[in-house]
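Figure 2 data, in text form.
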Amino acid sequence: MQSSSEIHHHERCRPVFPTENTGPADSDKGKVRRRVMGKSSVPQICRQQSFGRDIGHAAAETYLITRLSFDLLGYLGVGYRWITRLLALACYAILLMPGFLQVAYHYFFSPQVRRSIVYGDQPRNRLDLYIPPPTSAGLKPVVVFVTGGAWIIGYKAWGSLLGLQLAERDIIVACLDYRNFPQGTISDMVRDVSQGISFVCNNISAFGGDPNRIYLMGQSAGAHISSCALIEQAIKESRGERITWSASQIKAYFGLSGGYNLFNMVEHFHNRGLYRSIFLSIMEGEESFEQYSPGTRLKEPRVRKAASLLTHIVLFHGSEDYSIPCEASKTFAEALQGVEVKTDLIVYNGKTHTDLFLQDPLRGGKDELFDHIVAVIHANDSDALSKDAVAPPRRRLVPEILLKLAGKVSPF
């Protein structure tokens, strides 16, 4: 393995990535065979760069995002709803800044964070790893996390608070970055996320992770993208296609405040400022709605076989979520249960779209969502459960008055 000083800039680090064959499935005496890429196809691991190189990468990313933002403005125009939500977002971020600054400090300076590990050949194909402190021996469970951001402003660092807090419970977290619109559309996003999951499944043992205890989680748009990737992989696996990771390798899937049926979301998002024309551009037109609507795709007879490969699905949603109403998780849960997938739906009364992911974690103390996720991951580990029982409460990062004000002005 190369040391950090031996790793060059990501444009000069050219790992070879495994690809998936989407051709006809092979068969063996009428039985479908699952084929997973061998070790010879495992990509080269590019370790965390120096802080100076991270600054250079950040500058390049800033330039890219700025250029894409101007492209995006061409789509958005200057509609009243979009401008008011942008201003609300700025106020929201300022109110929560005391917490964001503390998280940012740990993100950049903690030795537990491995930033910007390359997992693919696209500019946004990077991930951050949050490694638990070396207090116990053995391989650790792993959560692959896909951030939200309305398919437009997603970024891997949005998962840093979750990553740092789960790492305190002896859980490795891999936060994936992926191409956003207009740099990419939904098929690019699903492809990026699938490749990131593949990288983790095939390489996490090099970082102390257990490849047999991998969990997948997505939030908001990230829940939609990651569920699409999971179901697509199950379909490929059921057909015996050549794959680089297995849907059945995922121990559980956590969907947080996600939307899973594009047919039901297009008008809702239009009324909230993500205009229909933009949404259709992101989702590659109405003709792609069925392919990228996990809740409806499961109803296809040819997909039902793939459903048997799906893992335990746990869906979380707030009852007061106006960005993506909790009905989205309810209908997805019903679709999953209709094809006999083990599914749990947990609705938190009075919680909004950002309460569960931001305000509650920044508040510290007891958090039902966090405790539930940890309990599922540690369910068969008595030692970990014992440690969880005596774990100190999470530290408050933002004063309560700022959290309440942020909740009032939140554009979500």
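Caption note: The radius of gyration is 21 Å.
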